[in-house]
Automatic annotation (TrEMBL):
Record carries keyword Ion transport: no
InterPro entries xref list: AAA+_ATPase, AAA_lid_6, ATPase_AAA_core, Beta_helix, CbxX/CfxQ, CbxX/CfxQ_RuBisCO_ESX, P-loop_NTPase, PbH1
Protein name: AAA family ATPase
Organism: Streptomyces phaeolivaceus
Pfam families attached to this UniProt entry: AAA, AAA_lid_6, Beta_helix
Region feature Disordered, mapped onto this chain: 595-627
Amino acid sequence: MTPTATVHRVAPKGRGTHRTIASAVHAARDGDEIRIAPGEYVEQLLLDRAVRLLPEDGPAHAVRLLAASPGRPVLEVTAPGVRVEGLVLTGQDPALPAALVAAGALELVGCEISGGRVEAGGDASLTLTDCRVSGTELAAVHLNTTGPARLTRVVVEDVEGTGVVVGARAVAEAAELTVRRVTGSGVRVRGAARAVLRECRISGPGRSGLLVEDEAAVAALDCRVTETGAEGVRVLGSSARPEDPEGRAGRESGHGGVLLTRCEILRTGTDGVAVSGTGDVLLRDCRLRDGSGPGVSADGESRVELVDCHVDRAHGSGLVARGTARLTAEGTSVTGSRANGLLAGDRSEVRMAAGDMTDCSFSAVHACDDSRVTLTACRIASTAEHGIRATDRAGLTVEGGRVTDCGLSGVRIDSAAEARMRGLSVVRGRAGITTESTGTVVLEECDVTDAERAGISCGTGTTPVLRDCRISGSGTAGLVIGERATPSVEGCTVRDAAGSGVVVGPGAEPRVRSVTVARTGKNSLFVGERARGTFEDCVFAGAGSDGTAFPALHVAAGGAPVLRGCLVRDTEEDVALEKGARPVFDDCLSRDVRNPSLPTGADQSLAASGSPGADPGSTARETEAPPEDTIEDLLAELDGLAGLDRVKQDVSSLVKLMRMVRRREEMGLAPPPLSRHLVFTGNPGTGKTTVARLYGRILAAVGLLERGHLVEADRSALVGEYVGHTGPKTSRVFQQARGGVLFIDEAYSLTQYTGSNDFGQEAIATLLKLMEDHRDDVVVIVAGYLKEMEVFVRSNPGLASRFNRTLLFEDYGSAELVSIVEHQAAQHQYELAPDARESLTARFDAMPRDRGFGNGRTARQLFQAMTERQAYRIAELPDATESDVMTLRPEDIPQTP
């Protein structure tokens, strides 16, 4: 109260007091105070001046104001600065206002309102603190104003309608608001209103807990919604996402509606969060649990983003995207869904990174219709059906991640779905990866371990591409190629299959290159009836490893595969043919085979007899190496590689040194001490394997190696799983590299494990002894990241003495990456428009150069993405010219990773 303010007292009797509150208000001026004695007052108050109403004495709420007529509020405010404290306001019609702010500003503190709502309209402002509103219809608090409103520690309950409605252009803040026992939605925000909710509790609404419509926007922090009749949060319309009340940066958006931070949404009647229209929702660090429908659903043209959220025990799918919605999830887990963990349909787009999906009743990820799903470093476990399934015409991209313990396949691609997967690990489950799709399927650097049945299956008539995949411990076959399938398989390994390593179905015609099949229970390679295909530079070792005599290669009647440069070793029998089989063997070898029958020499065919075996008297012999390259050709090939200036200089210096060494030897002089073994350091995609292959050919051209071929190995190729397993395993790989280069990628992994059951140090000791015993026969190159390789070399004195020269493969610059794209374009008969080069340079400049950057691999992937986008663009042109088809333009360059 200001020093000049007057106190007016109201009491039923007594000298110097007003008998009615209205009389006191009429006598008061702005800033005066009206103190009311306990009692019941039937009045209709118009507060048209800035006064303060409060009880005179007695307990809180001892002053009760009752509406004088059913159609009028108890009090109506038209002046600014009105404050009402500790009173009970009771209206006569619960569907009409009990307190109405038509203009000005009203502050209600510690009041109870019933029998009618609290409403603010026009440009009025309203503040409720420590109030209770109950027993109303339609709404308890209705903010239909263009002015501000604030609700603090307000309880809304027992409402036949919505708890709080924020409409028009109101800007409302609610802190510690409690809404319970309402038949409609708990809080409804509509029009162009903005609302911020902090630590609010909404329980038991008959409809949605929070309903956001039209162009409204809501930011909710540390709120809790429970026991809803419908959705926990329902977002409609096309509102703009509000600013983050915590000041944290959010995604720029032109559509949107809701920002939820650290909120809990529990036991909802349908969806936990449902978004449609063009609504835009960000959930950050939220938990959704025990909903009767999906955890989060996005429909229409909506955009939904989840960051570090948990969706637990949804009765429907954990995450759902339909229409053309875009759903993004990062660091989010989905657990115990009664349907799918993630369901994407229609033409929706879903991106999920570093997520977890476990214990789903259906497939953890299901992509159907024309949806597009991208999974990066996600973990999927314990699903009743498939870990990941793509069907219809869906598109699936997987980068890294792990899928374990699936009731059906770890991954299944069928119908006309397309999939590109790199670095995915699939462990256990009934099957590993199953491709039954007629669409494009590419698997790169994927691991499949301990599948009950086949590791990877290529279905009937399919054409998948497999590169550098590893399959181990399959219960039946490692790789199954179905009837009439024509897959391309390169650089893969199949180990420890209980059945056959590679099974080629009837009429199939695969293209297989540089594949290693080792330790199979049955055949290394089984070729079915009338199957064909080519197998180049493959190694088939240890067939029949369970003690049963199975030939490494079995060709059924009518089978006519072509095998070039293949090696069969460590088995009882190398080849068995059924009657009518017509295989062709070109430059193939048998080693350590007890009953060899494989012919040697170029272009040799082995005629089948009526018995499974062929001529047991033939012997295996090693063929001559291909004609040598000239040093000039090899150096020119090295110089033609993009970038790598420092590496090229180092290799050229080594060539000069080796030529001098060779010249001294030819003169009968002692060569100087020289270690030819090298350490290659650098990030992925910088050309380490390519240079290692060239290095071996250069050594062969100089005359310091016999063949100069390259054998690639990693920890799994060298380290065994039990005592006595590692030494022979490392020795076999080393023997395969005799006369050439043994390239060990991620060599530091041999020393990173220190458990009692790790045999990495044994592999190093074996390798060092073999390098000493065969110092002139094999060059060893170890490769990996710079810091890890420095630690690796220092970990053993023998390593430090033999690997004293390091070549650093620096990341490619933008200009070099552009040249790689240009080279790829020329190889595939494309041309870059001049402005496309500038856009490519800008695109590469914007890419972060961290350890995950793929360098040349990234450039090649970007080129592939450009060709796909160009194909979509050209398809829209009715009269595309040859120039249109060949030219890649700036709009073909994807601008996001």
